[in-house]
Amino acid sequence: MDTALVVGGTRFIGRHLVSDLVENGYDVVIFNRGNHDNPFEDDARVRHVEGDRTDDGALRSANAAVEPDAVFDCVAYKPREVVAATEIFSNADAYVYVSSGAAYGAEEIPKREGITELCPCSDDQLTDDSAESYGPRKAEGDRVVFDAASRGVDAMSVRPTIVYGPHDYTERLDYWIDRVENYDRVVVPGDGTNVWHRAYVEDVATALRLVAEEGEAGTAYNVGDRRALTLEETVHEIADAAGTDVEVVHAGERELAAAGLSGDDFVFYRDYPHLLDTSELAALGWDSTPVGEAMARSVEDHRDADRDGAEHDPGRDAEESVLSILDTL
């Protein structure tokens, strides 16, 4: 495969994917509305076609102009968009849909492709934009991919769990980095052993390319760090990367409630573990970046960026109340 079309391509996962594709010798075209700064504007190796991915006519025009060997769909959020894309790009050697670990509808440890049940998707959820329908919509997109593959389309799905790393506009990890870099004591809900599997963004990009090159049509591939961290381990990895020391303070449900908080107020906290089996992807030759390296790059990027994770902040005053309560016990 020589030519890749990336639907999206300028913000986070797509941005890293474009870089990975260029480094691996692809001619790359990004297709988006141009609403965000294009980091590849001055890179002659990356062309830009402007258009709205919800406009089927614009997608057809891009397909005719580019004739891509591989298509990477980073911004398909509704099943009808996947239906259109699998039809329009049916002649490509690979169509790779970026799904999500949120597509899984059953709580199992670990969640496995083809085994763990996917979320159902109601008629109302098909067109809904809420966070609550995100997993069901991604699951339905997966089912569209499988159906297309049954009709001869070389369509595959990649399911990343929570993605982190440089240029992460969600700022989820930035909240914890900001806490570690600014406070000696960091409140962690529960006993610190909860697991919400995460995936380093550069590894997600590599996985997408590898699935296009080596994956099997009609197959989904989970992506997540080969070493999954507990929340407490995450805080300590950040501290190591930042070159600082921090005390992790565990806060139970009662202490949090006394300060008007709950575990759900803390990003990356999840009561039941969320862990994806990544052996199918590893069988294609994929591996993940060591967590220490990934965290060091994330901390360096945080320091260079204007991000602090404030929208995920449960309130330092409330946390100080929790610390005061715990200090009296």
In short:
Residues 4-224 form the NAD-dependent epimerase/dehydratase domain. The protein is of the alpha/beta class.
Descriptive notes:
The structure is a single chain. By secondary structure, this protein is α/β, with parallel strands linked by helices. The chain has 2 domains: 3-164 and 197-223, NAD(P)-binding Rossmann-like Domain (Rossmann fold, 3-Layer(aba) Sandwich); 172-196 and 228-272 and 291-327, UDP-galactose 4-epimerase, domain 1. The chain is built from 12 helices and 11 strands. The strands form 3 sheets. It has a 7-stranded parallel β-sheet with strand order 3-2-1-4-5-6-10, sandwiched between helices. Strands 7-9 form a two-stranded parallel sheet. Helix 1 crosses helix 7, helix 2 (56-66) runs parallel beside helix 3 and helix 8 (231-242) crosses helix 11. The radius of gyration is 21 Å and the shape is globular. The protein starts with a strand and ends with a helix.
Topology:
Elements: E1 3-7, H1 13-23, E2 27-32, E3 46-50, H2 56-66, E4 70-73, H3 79-88, E5 94-98, H4 123-126, H5 134-150, E6 155-160, E7 162-164, H6 172-182, E8 185-189, E9 198-200, H7 201-214, E10 220-223, H8 231-242, E11 247-251, H9 253-258, H10 279-282, H11 291-304, H12 316-327
Parallel strand pairs: 1-2, 1-4, 2-3, 4-5, 5-6, 6-10, 7-9, 8-11
Helix pairs in contact: 1-7, 2-3, 3-5, 6-8, 8-11
Family: Belongs to the NAD(P)-dependent epimerase/dehydratase family.
Pfam families: Epimerase
Biased composition (Basic and acidic residues): 298-319
